[in-house]
Amino acid sequence: MKISKMYVHTLRDDPAEAETPSHKLLLRAGMIRKLVSGVYGFMPMGYRVLKKIEQIVREEMDAKGGQEILMSAIQPAELWQESGRWYAYGPEMFRLKDRHDRDFCLGPTHEEIFTDIVRSEVNSHRQLPLNLYQIQTKYRDEKRPRFGLLRSREFIMKDAYSFDKDQDGLEKSYQDMYEAYGKIFTRCGLEFRAVEADTGAMGGSDSHEFTALSEVGEGVIAYCDKCDFAATSERAQCVDAPFDKEEKELPLEEVLTPGKKTIEDVSDYLQVHPNKTIKMLLFKAENEVVAALLRGDRELNETKLVNALGIPEHLLEFASEAEVQGITGADTGFAGPVALKEDLKFVIDSELIHMKNMIAGANKTDYHLKGVNYGRDYQGGIIQDIKLIDEGHPCPKCAEPVKLARGIEVGQVFKLGTKYSESMGAFYTDENMQDKAMIMGCYGIGVSRTMAAVIEQHHDENGIIWPISLAPYHVMITVINTKNEEQMETAENIHTTLQKAGVEVLLDDRDERAGVKFKDADLIGIPIRITVGKKVVDGKVEFKLRKESEKIDLSIDEAISKALSIIEAK
Ligand code: ATP
Ligand code: MG
Predict the structure, then answer these.
(1) Whose CA is nearest to atom 21 of ligand 1?
(2) How far is the CA of 251 from the centre of ligand 1 (A)?
(3) Is the pTM value of this prediction over 0.85?
(4) Mutate to test the pocket of ligand 1, among 408, 412, 413 (most ligand atoms within 8 A of CB)
(5) Domains, the chain, ordered by start
(6) Which protein residue's CA is at the shortest distance from atom 28 of ligand 1?
(7) Residue 14 Ramachandran class (φ > 0 left, ψ -120 to 50 alpha, else beta)
(8) 409 alpha carbon – ligand 1 mean position (Å)
(9) d(Cα 520, Cα 28) in Å, to the nearest integer?
(10) How many CB atoms sit inside 10 A of residue 563's CB?
């Protein structure tokens, strides 16, 4: 392909709105174009990469017996009402009505649709197991669409759904998908970890997330170097701190803490460690106000809190300042569990109930209470681990200090069980003529997000460095002087030879300065560059790999065979 004929428009400068390397480089290299916030189109170079990722996904899914189908993006509300998610899914769902006032959505995911298809056509154990998948456009009205393809509102997902007769079958299907995902992300050149994950709004029991390690990732994983523990920070169980069983309960005492509103201020002022204070956070959860209580030096894990409450995440929001004042009768910063004006639902971190003589807000502006003890001074509540794990906390498996890393969630696998098959009536008749609910699993990969994640891991200050497996083209032939007949002829010959050998090759025949051409080749990230310049009179061309700085002069034949061997090795 000749660049002069190609629809590719690179930008010299970083677009102002782009924050992460992948977002900047995808735009600058002319791979994607933005329509509106979180909605992108793929240009020829970018679309080639996307199709390569899709192809890798397809091959690995097929290798595990997956069968590809393509379902519609438009989905009727009735199916979501059957599963109970029409309400639970919340504002992330793009909803629309047709001319007859019937409700629809643009699919954010397809559990309901696949369950519906299978329930109407599968009724015997002989038709199971089944793994159906699609590579299709998803719609989610994200609260914060950002970072280009990393969190967009329209994106490409591979979603697969497995249907099994029994739990053993599900275990096998899940294991198969887990293995396929490992192969897919390895072939894409990603450095990733598979970690235990929360099941969230999807429902079901076990789940793993595949996380591409990256500083720009919105996810945090906790892992242990001493054992195999690895989980998302949302999921990671925390170990309660030890406590002094002998400590005697002291009487409650009100102390003046003028203007001391934060844990830090209060503990400094009263000369105690923050782990002797109680942090109380007030939320509105669906229709009630909830107080989450934990030790002052801990951070709240909101996922654990919504799980404890059994509500979807979008129904939890911080209480406003006015609401806090209404409930506590005091300014914010002085809320505590003792002597509240109104009864609140408490969710109390499991470690807090053993802590003696704590300091908490007095529900009176400028005052705190000393000597606060669970059981005597405040009672009840849902008692659960609602802490967020942090670097150095003890590993829940082996107690060694855990480490944290940031990453991008590129895929997630779930054991769903019978949540959808039971609510939507996906049953089959077993060998003994008994009706049973199918056991399901679901498995997603962010195909377009993976493209961005690969760039986050493979770039330098000059541009993208595509692994051969995903590169839009393998080789860029750069002609230094297009007016020089010998240079042009040699370049065209190399182009033809490589093309015949099945190499995806570009010929930069533009009437531009060499510097401009090199810059574009680096920006777009073509793995191999062959430069045809003056030395062609001696039968030599220059050979360079995008990921290395070294350039070598080779004969034309040598350059061709070196390119071929590098591409074949991949
Ligand atoms: P996140 O926590 O990042 O919002 P999710 O848990 O909502 O992701 P899933 O419902 O498991 O995601 O969707 C399957 C895959 O789709 C994810 O692993 C991710 O790679 C991709 N994905 C999800 N949301 C987006 C998005 N807004 N933009 C691009 N890819 C996405
Ligand atoms: Mg999401």
Answers:
(1) 446
(2) 51
(3) yes
(4) 412
(5) 42-236+404-456 (3.30.930.10), 253-383 (3.90.960.10), 464-569 (3.40.50.800)
(6) 151
(7) beta
(8) 7
(9) 10
(10) 26
